[in-house]
Design a protein that fits this description.
Blueprint: H1 16-27, H2 41-50, H3 67-83, H4 92-95, H5 100-116, H6 128-143, H7 150-183, H8 186-226, H9 235-244, H10 252-271
Helix pairs in contact: 2-3, 8-9, 9-10
Organism: Manihot esculenta (Cassava)
Region (Disordered): 128-168
Biased composition (Low complexity): 148-168
Length: 272
């Protein structure tokens, strides 16, 4: 089933926000960046939710910070793939670097796969927080490693932060009412103005993210075309990849590609 998810599948056009919402809703987390899932723990728990009892959660380290600890998580994930006969190679060396695009691509594939199992229907009896706690306790009792609670504590921290923010809002509203009674409706007008500005900013951010995802998909199409076996050694394909894979935004990337293409064309004419 997983082998049928090709690089041009619609799964790879799912945006970052949708992936984060999917993870946070299912696992009761508060991730804000794709690279926060680079440790492999999130992927392991997604498979645990999809196939209850298959993932040895006591081996999953939710507090993994070093590449060594992250690799251990991906070993658990690969063992699960092998057990379920899922033909998916995990690019561990790329994922543990925390690069957003690599991790986004893997999570896009994972979402597509999980959605294909039972129509993507969530297991209502699955308690992600409880599973993380149990996994941490089991690993602590077995190996003496530090109990992994970063994701759980992050969730609890955000919950407590939400409570404090809620209290702050209530307090602010009370103060605002007092000011309105004492000094008129100026505070209400200010609140409405700020609310409108926030709404406008959110709309702008959403628009920019959609535009970014659109152009990223275009670049990905160009990359896949240049990687085709019958085209990848052509001078034009090599020149394009020099630009795509430039280490930074240096201006010389285009110049280097043009120079390479010019030399390749001249060499071809000389041979002819």
């Amino acid at each position: 089933m997983a082998s049928n998810i090709g690089m041009m599948d619609s799964a790879y056009f799912v945006g970052r926000n949708e992936i984060l919402t999917w993870i946070n809703n299912r696992l009761q987390l508060n991730l804000t960046r794709i690279e926060e899932a680079a440790s492999g723990a999130v992927q392991c728990q997604m498979m645990d939710m999809t196939y209850p009892g298959v993932v040895p959660m006591h081996k999953v380290n939710f507090d993994a910070k070093t590449e060594y600890d992250m690799i251990q998580n991906y070993k658990v994930l690969q063992d699960v793939f092998n057990k379920l006969k899922i033909e998916k190679h995990i690019e561990v060396n790329k994922l543990v670097k925390g690069r957003p695009l690599d991790n986004l691509e893997f999570l896009q594939w994972l979402k597509r796969y999980c959605d294909s199992i039972n129509g993507g229907i969530m297991n209502e009896n699955y308690n992600p927080v409880e599973r993380r706690i149990k996994g941490g306790k089991d690993r602590n009792s077995k190996g003496g490693q530090k109990t992994s609670k970063s994701l759980q504590s992050n969730n609890l921290h955000n919950s407590s932060s939400g409570n404090s923010v809620g209290l702050s809002k209530i307090s602010g509203l009370k103060q605002g009412r007092g000011s309105a009674v004492a000094g008129g409706a100026n505070s209400s007008a200010d609140i409405e103005t700020l609310s409108k500005e926030i709404t406008d900013l959110k709309l702008s951010v959403d628009h920019l993210e959609k535009e970014r995802d659109f152009y990223f998909a275009k670049l990905r199409d160009v990359e896949l075309l240049c990687q085709a076996p019958e085209l990848e050694d052509l001078p034009m394909a090599v020149a394009i990849k020099k630009i795509l894979y430039a280490a930074d935004t240096k201006e010389s990337a285009l110049e280097e590609a043009q120079e390479y293409l010019y030399q390749a064309m001249n060499n071809g004419e000389d041979e002819a």
